[in-house]
Write a structure and sequence with these properties.
By secondary structure, the chain is mainly α. It has a domain of 27 residues. The protein is elongated, with a radius of gyration of 31 Å. The protein is built from three helices and no strands. The protein starts with a helix and ends with a helix.
Length: 82
């Protein structure tokens, strides 16, 4: 294979790569300033957060109850450290 042909193929590949990068980067950039971010209506945010499904409710309640029941033991142990 001729050296010039290989060089032309590599150049073509490089050129296509950078052209593709230019086209791909022409889209909207991420927000770089707070003023670029759309403000969410507080009422909509409250409604959305109220509709979030609680996962592992029973597990969380069990852990909280366990911590509450063990609190006196922690206090006793901490007060009697030597």
């Amino acid at each position: 294979m001729d050296f010039n042909v290989v060089e032309e193929e590599e150049f073509g590949f490089s050129r296509n790569y950078f052209l593709a990068k230019e086209v791909g980067s022409s889209g909207k950039k991420s927000a770089r300033k707070l003023s670029d971010i759309n403000v969410v209506d507080e009422q909509k945010l409250r409604e959305a957060s109220a509709n979030i499904e609680q996962k592992h409710q029973n597990d969380v309640a069990g852990l909280i109850n366990s911590c509450k029941s063990l609190y006196p033991k922690w206090v006793f142990d901490l007060r009697h450290l030597d």
